[in-house]
Amino acid sequence: MECIESGSEHVVEQTGSENGTKEKSDIENDKSTDNSIGDRSQPAACKIAKSSAEIAPEQSNGITHETIEVKVIYNKKKYDVSVTTSSTIPEFKKQLQGLLGVPDSMQKLMFKGLLQDNQTISSSGIVKGSKIMLVGSTLNDVLAVSSVSKQDVAEMEKATTVKEPLCKQKIHRKVLDKGIPEDVMPGIKNLKESLPPVPLSGMLNKHGGKVRLTFKLENDQLWLSTKERTEKLPMGSIKGVVSEPIEGHDEYHIMGLQLGPTEASRYWIYWVPAQYVEAVKDAILGKWQFF
């Protein structure tokens, strides 16, 4: 780049005529009061100001809006996601909902612990390249677990109207009439115990198939396993839990997990040991603490 020198003194010498040009001393006074001229030791035309993008990330109201790349791990797959450091965790969940199809209300984000909704990307310590674990199920996954036929819906509506005990309703009798499973865990009535260190097993679902419950409290998940599949349900996706003792076998309960908005979307489990019923409800409904 070629710099052009400004020579104000030459201008004075050339313009000094009877037309009333300024004296050299007047020009010097003008120089001292004109801040735009600056230091004559370096030509002004050589000074190049950096753009705001080169000086610092974009700012608004004093908040830095820097975009970083992070890795989101979901279902054993890694996804590269761009996010603004000023984004709140709920905003980030909305972004992930659009990318992965997991409803924001059913998401749990893990980064050095469970991320809270009152945090931002920046305040949670997330930086470029950080790995964030997403725990959650799509709505289709949840509804698939609780597949309910039209006949089941009709029978349940009828039972609700007449307020029959669960164990006497036709929809449940077809499972209960098979009797207590041989490998079910022993039940104890009138006793409350904490969840055992092993999964609750030997129980039956509405099809009469074996079902097992595994509580992954560190991930805020309930693993619901059958012979065919294991569904990892976020605790937050279960809207409620109902249970009643089985008549004639009070040491066991019928339990319904509310997976959708209506009673028809309950996932029924039979022969749940009575001593663990309250612990199951506490774990699912959030009465345990995550450390």
Automatic annotation (TrEMBL):
MF terms in GO: cadherin binding; RNA binding
Occurrences of domain Ubiquitin-like (ranges): 66-135
Biased composition (Basic and acidic residues): 20-33
Pfam annotation, one family: PH_UBFD1_C
Residues spanning the signal sequence: none
Domain of life: Eukaryota
Region (Disordered) residue spans: 1-44
PANTHER family cross-referenced by the UniProt entry: UBIQUITIN DOMAIN-CONTAINING PROTEIN UBFD1
Stated name of the protein: Ubiquitin-like domain-containing protein
UniProt source species: Rhynchophorus ferrugineus (Red palm weevil)
